[in-house]
Structure formats: structure tokens, C-alpha cells
Write a structure and sequence with these properties.
Elements (H helix, E strand, L loop, with lengths): L10 H17 L2 H17 L4 E3 L3 E5 L6 E5 L22 E8 L3 E8 L4 E7 L1
Antiparallel strand pairs: 1-2, 2-3, 4-5, 5-6
Helix pairs in contact: 1-2
The structure holds zinc ion.
Zinc ion binds next to loops.
């Protein structure tokens, strides 16, 4: 019997993506970032979809094979994580840049915090 094609990742596969993101945000290693992006892409490819939406963010396949990007849906205006108040800037910050979208007058930067929160902020070019 041919495999059934589902339009959306199963709850288990959604969990695989969320876990990969969580592992990167808590460990913040280059290896975990690489694994996270490849894992997201593998799930998207398996379902033949180019993006999938979670409550706080969208995961999207890149033009280049094998990778993906994460874009936050919620914008913040301050200088702190909206969930745990971790400062956004500074060497000791446990917030990492997940992706950057270039706009005409600003960049929309998606940040991921060690606490698991993902949010975006418009930054000057
Ligand atoms: Zn946080």
C-alpha cells in the first residue's frame, strides 16, 4: 500500500521540530543549531510542504536544500525577552538570533531565548 500523505506534520513530527528548537535554545551550540535546521527541513520535505506554522513562529524551507529558517510571528519593542526578561543585547545574553529578514528600511530579526520563547524585533540596518 502506498504511504498516506498528510497535509500537515503529525503531532509527533511537530514535537520533533519543537524539541530540536528547544535543544538549540537551551544548549546554544553550533552543532545543535545545525541539527535543528536540518531536522526542520527533513520534516518539511517528508510532508512535501515549504512551511509550517506553530503558535509563536513559522518554519520555512530555504531555497538551498537541507536547511530551514525560523521566523517569529510576534513582534516586541523592548530590550528584553517578553517571557523571562533576559536582556536582548550584551555578551552575556542567552538570546540568540535565529533569522534575519531584510526589509527596505530595517531588518526583522527573529530571536530565540534560552527559556524557549521566540520573538521578532525590527532593527535598524
Ligand atoms: Zn526568555
Amino acid at each position: 500500500m502506498p504511504a498516506k500523505v498528510y497535509p500537515f506534520p503529525s503531532p509527533e513530527d511537530q514535537q520533533v521540530i519543537q524539541t530540536a528548537i528547544e535543544v538549540f535554545l537551551t544548549s546554544q551550540t553550533g552543532r545543535a543549531r545545525d541539527t535543528m535546521l536540518k531536522t526542520i527541513r527533513a520534516v518539511l520535505d517528508r510532508y512535501h510542504i515549504s512551511k509550517f506554522s506553530f503558535p509563536d513562529y513559522v518554519v520555512e524551507a530555504t531555497r538551498a536544500p537541507g536547511y530551514a529558517v525560523i521566523r517569529a510571528k510576534k513582534l516586541i519593542t523592548g530590550h528584553k525577552c517578553p517571557s523571562c526578561a533576559e536582556p536582548l543585547y550584551g555578551l552575556a545574553s542567552r538570546i540568540r538570533i535565529l533569522s534575519v529578514q531584510e526589509r527596505r528600511d530595517y531588518h526583522l530579526v527573529t530571536y530565540g531565548c534560552r527559556c524557549g520563547k521566540i520573538f521578532a524585533k525590527p532593527e535598524e540596518c
